[in-house]
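User: Can you help me understand a structure? I only have the sequence.
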Amino acid sequence: MLRPATLARSGAESLGVIGCGWQAASQIACIREALPSIKRVVVYCRNAERLAAFCKEHACEPAETNRDAADCDVVVTTTTSKDPVLRGEWLRPGALVCAVGANDPSRRELDNTVIERAAFVCCDSREQAQRESGDLIEPVAQSLLDWLEVHELQEIVAGELQGRAADDDIVIFKSNGIAAWDLAVGARVVELAREHGVGSEL
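Assistant: Let's start by predicting it. Here is the structure, written out as tokens:
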């Protein structure tokens, strides 16, 4: 999970989430942990019944529209949409956008204005993004962005790059996930389980 001082604006208090599946739930849990300053979580999805159940389970506020969810300090998109669900004009200055869904070159969660307004763009793997991230592939093809402007999260975590230069900067993190990270976490979980004598050997 991203450290508060790297990509999110200092003192970020609101989190907006577009999408209400299992990935949205994990994003909310992680961001609440990483950003203790978050006081309000607003969620939107198209299914009203599913949205109500999700918000009750995760102590969130239901949004009437995706635009309402977008008006937050941190905005997460967790959908499989083919067309953008987040528009750049909806973002407040200083927003951090975490686009973690639509991992396919033909799908997009972010419109071009999100990209154009961004002061900093990063991903978990540039090589993978060039194959899977329609949110970045199409803007690069349209000369709105250059792959040289897309940085990797590891550069920020290692302190090689400053992720955010100013409080008013809009920052994008486009994530596709990396299988090696999942394996590393799994190995650590197994190690901890053995240390604490829990679980069953298969």
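Now, to help you interpret it: Strands lie at 14-18, 40-44, 61-62, 74-77, 96-99, 118-123, 150-152, 170-174. Residues 1-5 have pLDDT under 50 and may be disordered. Let me know which part you'd like to focus on.
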